[in-house]
Specification:
The chain is of the alpha+beta class and 366 residues long. It folds into 3 domains: 78 residues, Trypsin-like serine proteases (Thrombin, subunit H), CATH 2.40.10.10; 101 residues, Beta Barrel (Thrombin, subunit H); 96 residues, PDZ domain (Pdz3 Domain, Roll), CATH 2.30.42.10. It has 6 helices and 21 strands. The strands form 4 sheets. Strands 1-2-3-6-5-4 form a 6-stranded antiparallel barrel. A 6-stranded antiparallel beta barrel has the order 8-9-10-13-12-11. Strands 15, 16, 17, 18, 19 and 20 form a 6-stranded antiparallel sheet that branches. The chain is extended.
């Protein structure tokens, strides 16, 4: 009897040991899974924080690099620069610009003035140099200034053809005076290929192919760079709509790239001239509801002193191609002409009603 009872106790003890082992095994496995889960979560969160810091550091570096290339421009020397002076930006001619090549500053025409105009360029370190306008276009509201300073930082050029609505952009400039110089504002591309009608002293002009952005642009920002997230200049800020918030415009950088290239490589730019004035289809709604065409440039005027005056071209013709390249905008046409040289021969494909014909013309000089 005692032997049987002892044997039963041993069996019970063995079962208890087995149960405890199973329980501890389950508990240890559960803790192991929780530990791995915690470690995995911590690793993911840690990576996320690291990437955010890395992006912020990259953005700081990108913005600082472009800020170093952004300059202040004034038409008046030693006239004071405080924002607390009445109408300081108008009276002092304050504006912005960006260094695009050694000694060359890109800005607005309404900031720098016409060709051969003098102006004063202030670097980030406060050093001011006298510059002279070597190229200027009132139609495009762009100008290039030459200064004699060496070893300057240069902004990176982007591609304004590849921009999309919603892309993040940054505008850099001197909004109301030198106390707030090189202010950075951010926003997105709100629209592309915009046409704006300007009326001044009973004269109507049209700025075409503009980039629209909601990045804040004030008067002194004019001529400053509009950059993408890679720090590449995709446009030069020009105007804002005073009657609306968050509507500003920039001139696409691609149109002036051929000029910068020639100035950098040759030290001069002799502007080739086609001798026409026209509108692309984006501007047609401003002109007449009777005009309708799918592509090309509507010829509004032919310069009597230009190379196309006696070519047979007429007002109302549609310029569809130049050297077999389809033309959709005035900016694209100008960009192509800027890439050519005075004396080059170009072929124009013209549509007149249902007739298609070609005209060969030798580019003149402005």
């Amino acid at each position: 009897m005692y032997h049987v009872e002892r044997e039963n106790n041993n069996i019970f003890l063995l079962l208890m040991i087995i149960a405890l082992v199973v329980l501890f095994t389950i508990l240890a496995y559960t803790l192991f899974l929780d530990s791995n889960k915690y470690q995995y979560t911590e690793k993911v969160v840690g990576t996320k924080i690291y990437n955010e810091n890395e992006n912020n550091n990259n953005l700081d570096e990108i913005l600082n690099n472009t800020i170093e290339c952004t300059v202040g421009i004034s038409k008046i020397k030693n006239a004071g620069s405080t924002i607390f002076l009445e109408n300081s930006t108008e009276n002092l001619g304050l504006g912005s610009g960006v260094i695009v090549s050694q000694g060359y500053i890109l800005t607005n025409q309404h900031v720098a003035g016409d060709k051969y105009s003098p102006c004063y360029v202030t670097m980030q370190n406060g050093v001011t140099d006298t510059g002279v306008v070597v190229w200027s276009s009132e139609d495009l509201d762009l100008a290039i200034i030459k200064i004699n300073m060496k070893d300057l930082p240069e902004a990176k050029m982007g591609d304004s053809e590849n921009i999309k609505i919603g892309n993040t952009v940054y505008a850099i400039g001197n909004p109301v005076g030198y106390e707030l110089q090189r202010t950075v504002t951010s926003g997105i591309i709100s629209g592309i290929d915009r046409t704006i009608k300007l009326e001044e002293e009973n004269k109507k002009t049209y700025m075409e192919g503009l980039i629209q952005t909601d990045a804040t642009i004030n008067q002194g920002n004019s001529g400053g760079p509009l950059i993408n997230q890679n720090g590449e200049v995709i446009g030069i800020t020009t105007i804002k709509i005073d009657d609306a918030e968050g509507i500003g415009f920039a001139i696409p950088i691609n149109i002036v790239k051929p000029i910068i290239k020639k100035l950098t490589e040759k030290g001069e730019f002799i502007e080739p001239y086609l001798g026409i004035y026209g509108y692309d289809k984006q501007a047609i709604p401003y002109l007449s509801t009777n005009l309708n065409f799918d592509m090309g440039i509507y010829i509004e005027e032919i310069d009597a002193t230009g190379p196309l005056y006696n070519s047979g071209l007429m007002k109302g013709d549609i310029l569809e191609k130049i050297d077999d390249m389809q033309i959709e905008s005035m900016n694209k046409l100008k960009e192509y002409i800027f890439s050519k040289n005075v004396g080059d021969n170009v072929k124009l494909t013209i549509k007149r009603k249902k007739e298609i014909f070609e005209i060969n013309v030798i580019l003149g000089k402005t």
